[in-house]
Amino acid sequence: MTEDQEALDLAADWADISQGLRKDLGHQLHSQWIKPIQLGSFCKDTGTLNLFLPTEFSANWVADRFADRLSLAWKIARSEVRQVRIGVHPGRRQLPEVSLGGPDSFGRGAANDGAERFGAMGAGTIGDAGFTASVGLDPSLTFAAFVTGTTNVLAFNAAERMAKVEQPQFSPLYLKAATGQGKTHLMHAIGHAYLAAHPRARIFYCSAERFMVEFVSALRQNEMIEFKARLRGFDLLLVDDIQFIIGKASAQEELLYTIDALLAEGKRLVFAADRAPQALDGVEQRLLSRLSMGLVADIQPADIELRRAILESKLTKFAPLEVPADVIEFLARTINRNVRELVGGLNKLIAYAQLTGQEVSLQLAEEQLTDILSANRKRITIDEIQRTVCQFYRVDRSEMSSKRRARAVVRPRQVAMYLAKVLTPRSYPEIGRKFGGRDHSTVIHAVRLIEDLRKRDADMDGDVRSLLRQLES
Predict the structure, then answer these.
(1) pLDDT tens digits for range 345-357
(2) What value, to the nearest 5°, has the Cα angle with vertex 216 and ends 12 and 82?
(3) For residue 400, pLDDT beyond 80
(4) Helix/strand/coil for 342
């Protein structure tokens, strides 16, 4: 393969990965931190891929919060990538670092879920000789900073109970919530409160992705005994985004044994996911049983009263700047998808007003928050996409999952896969499961094919545009 072809293939893979991250993280975070990433060299001998950002600050920020996510995405896209290195391009002039506001500015966002899903993955690694003093907890995410309402009070009270000195009545605690609703905030708060009550306790917070990366690393380096010993030495284990352990049989088995070992010694475990244990496809039944044996605490989407309260709580840090009541009401009513976007919208609006010298107003909010506002208008599901595509092409709904390869059904199925990737935050494997359990590579092929056809086939482009209008209207 020529160097030019290699570069083109890397660029194509990065386009797919970047698009997936945009769906997962949202437009604001993606534009600020992921979009500026430039592809560097790839060393086939070491399997190391270099990614560059314009400043040391941005490189460190992305490395701290998205390194595991980027590494896993690249390993899925091409198996020869074994390590992703994030830094500043050696030939680029170092720019002065600028930080807007405190820990809640822009990407550090939402009031009840201030650490991004992929941020603060934990200090040290399970494969290291030891752990650093920090446990990867965000100091701003405490119980005192969590705003409660009717939709999250059960989870809040359960989290507080888990962190108390006395042994909790339930373990593990399983926090279930859609993205941006506060489950990560509560996990960090449990860690802080437990450490305050047990100063010598050993705590580890990580994502399921991080757990898998460390497990695979220990397996490859023949360090499984050390991995198990260190993992089972913790007094409190916090595992976020457990849905990403789906389908990894060996990692599931190790997590199962770890849960049994820690529970037998009276240790505490907390898990968080965007769905209930019973809805985790591809997870072994024994592990599902362990995850649901304690307390499953559901955090419902914040209602209008809670959204108002969260905005009001955030305004104190902007004093003496005034935000009119009609703006708060507009944000609370309009940005209803998740708390992270709600506070991110407030941060963006206030930062823009401060940097341009304008007053915060309803008109300014409508002008500057277009992307966030439009994203909150409607949430499209894969089922809706399949139903709409079948009606458009006049094919039976069952063809979306069938094995038939006739062109009359294959093309509509590929269009539906393409729209699912464009309009939903679902990953390639998740989309494949909705289309008859197809492999993620089939979905990737379909997405790339439709993208190419739209560029050179006016009829296909017209079909897709028409479907987009129907689905987004």
Answers:
(1) 998 898 888 888 8
(2) 35
(3) yes
(4) helix
In whole angstroms, what separates CA 37 from the centre of its chain?
Answer: 18
Cβ–Cβ under 8 Å, residues 208 and 239: yes
Q: Residues 242, 244, 248, 254: is their CA dihedral positive or negative?
A: negative
Q: State how far the Cα of 65 lies from the Cα of 72, in Å rounded to an integer.
A: 13
For the stretch 363-397, pLDDT in tens is: 888 888 887 877 666 678 999 999 999 999 999 99
Query: Quick count: other Cβ atoms within 10 Å of Cβ 291?
Result: 24
The tokens describing 4, both together, are 């030019």
Q: Domain residues of the chain, as ranges?
A: 3-88, 112-299, 304-375, 382-472
CATH 1.10.1750.10 assigned to 382-472: yes
> Which CATH number is 3-88 given?
3.30.300.180
pLDDT for 126 equals 37
Query: Looking at domain 304-375, which CATH architecture does it have?
Result: Orthogonal Bundle (1.10)
The CATH class of the 112-299 domain is alpha beta
Is pTM beyond 0.90 here? no
d(CA 87, CA 49): 11
Q: What gap in Å lies between CA 433 and CA 447, rounded to an integer?
A: 15
Q: What would the pLDDT profile of 12-43 be if each residue is shown by its tens digit?
A: 788 888 887 877 777 777 877 888 898 888 88
**HEC secondary structure over 231-267:** HCCCCEEEEECHHHHCCCHHHHHHHHHHHHHHHHCCC
Instruction: For 84, list phi and psi in degrees, rounded to 5.
Output: -115, 125
CA distance 371 to 313: 24
Which region holds residue 47: left if phi is over 0, alpha if psi is between -120 and 50, else beta?
left
With 0-12 CB in 10 A as exposed, 13-18 as middle and 19+ as buried, what is 418?
A: buried
Q: Band the pLDDT of 298: cuts 50, 70, 90.
A: very high
